[in-house]
Amino acid sequence: MPELPEVHTTATILNKLIAGKKIIDVWTDYGGSIHKGADHIKDPAFLKNFKKIVTDTKIQRVHRRGKNVLIELDNSHTILVHMKMTGHLLYGSYKYAKGVWQAKEQDLQDPFNRFVHLVFTLDNGKSVALCDVRKFAKVTHIPTELLETSSHLSYHGPEPLDDTYTAKDFQEALQSKPKLPIKRVMMMPEIVSGIGNIYSDEILWAVDVHPLSKPKNIPDTVYKKMYTVMKEILSKGIDFGGDSTSDYRNPYGVAGKFQYHHMAYRRTGQKCEKKGCTGTIHRIAMNNRGAHFCNVHQKVY
DNA sequence: TGCAGTGTTGCTTC
DNA sequence: CGAAGCAACACTGC
Predict the structure, then answer these.
(1) CA of A266 and C1' of C12: distance in angstroms?
(2) CB < 7 Å to strand B — which of 261-280 in chain A?
(3) A96 C-beta less than 7 Å away from strand C
(4) Phi, psi of A287 (to 5 degrees)
(5) What percent of chain A has pLDDT over 90?
(6) Does any strand B atom come closer than 7 Å to the Cβ of A106?
(7) Which strand B nucleotides have any atom less than 7 A from protein CB atoms?
(8) Could you give the CA distance from residue A222 to residue A210 in angstroms, rounded to a whole number?
(9) CA-to-CA distance for A21 and A173, rounded, in angstroms?
(10) Among all strands, which nt has the closest C1' to A86 (CA)?
(11) Residue at minimal CA–C1' distance from C9?
(12) pLDDT per residue as tens digits for the range A20-43
């Protein structure tokens, strides 16, 4: 599940690989069904226009906002890709055969080539492919100057890794939802941009806070620590090349390694690794998803 | 075989 | 308006 560190890894690598290249063709098998209220390429009419706008353009840079990958073009438009749960962007040489796109390069380790649903062909003989098992991904184009104010991004909270983002900003944002469970609030894009299920579990484990704690009850000192730890864990995720518990791969098709360093996420039934802690990792259902926490050292506020 | 589990986000409903 | 719940998907694992 691409969260901030995974999307960051993808955008950083892609930027090095494709900035300055031209998009000469677009292929996709999306567009087969009308998506309600669609302003993305699953809508057939939108798709037609999308192809027209992005073909024969030069890529200026690839960057990120929240969990969105932004591919800025030289025609004042930006392609926005939200990979949702199972999407990832790959770079390589693809050929179309037997109804699927297949990578030609041996060094491309991605096992999900049969789930490629969108391919941008570049002028250097390479392609960028969106691989998306569950077809949840959102792809759209926006005039670059309207990006931040568009419906896709306007509601987003600040970037947690920005230097200008302070502990006070963080605490105030979380406490703006005083009664909702802290874990849920951390995962809301309008509160903090980029934290999902994995990283919220890990952050709360590290600061000894139970996921059901109410934001209004958590003391200032704990928020201070949470702010620091949040930055550290997201940075750690980036340093490990992201988390590949599910099917995330970087643009080379290579898995990240953060999943080997989980303390809480998906460790149900295992002993808590915190020094001196005698607890066990438990899993509870929260809003149709799993929250993982230690039953001893994580306190309910 | 069948169904629960997986999870982000937007839309609908209360 | 805030919050809860579900839909958009398709595959894996038990």
Answers:
(1) 16
(2) 265-266
(3) no
(4) 55, 50
(5) 56
(6) no
(7) 5-12
(8) 12
(9) 39
(10) B7
(11) A134
(12) 999 999 988 776 554 544 577 777
CA of A147 to C1' of C6 (A): 29
A177 touches strand C (CB under 7 A): yes
Any strand B atom closer than 7 Å to A134 CB: yes
Q: How far apart are CA A157 and CA A97, in angstroms?
A: 43
Check if residue A133 sits with its Cβ under 7 angstroms from strand C: yes
Residue A270 zone, left/alpha/beta (φ > 0; ψ -120 to 50; rest): beta
- Quick check: A9 pLDDT over 70? yes
| Contact between residue A294 and residue A280 where contact means Cβ atoms under 8 Å apart | yes
Select, from the ranges A100-109, A190-199, A225-234, A276-285, the one with the highest average predicted confidence (pLDDT).
A225-234
What does the alpha-carbon distance between residue A195 and residue A127 come to, in Å, rounded to a whole number?
29
Return the pLDDT at A106: 47
- Output the pLDDT for position A162: 93
Q: Which of residues 46-65 of A touch strand B (CB under 7 A)?
A: none
Assess whether A33 (CB) lies less than 7 A from strand C.
yes
For chain A, give the secondary structure using H, E and C: CCCHHHHHHHHHHHHHHHCCCEEEEEEECCCCCCCCCCCCCCCHHHHHHHHHHHCCEEEEEEEEECCEEEEEECCCEEEEEECCCCEEEEEECEEEECCEEEECCCCCCCCCHHHEEEEEEECCCCEEEEEECCCCCEEEEEEHHHCCCCCCCCCCCCCCCCCCCCHHHHHHHHHCCCCCCHHHHHCCCCCCCCCCHHHHHHHHHHCCECCCCCHHHCCHHHHHHHHHHHHHHHHHHHHCCCCCCCCCCCCCCCCCCHHHHCCCCCCCCCECCCCCCCCEEEEEEECCEEEEEECCCCECC
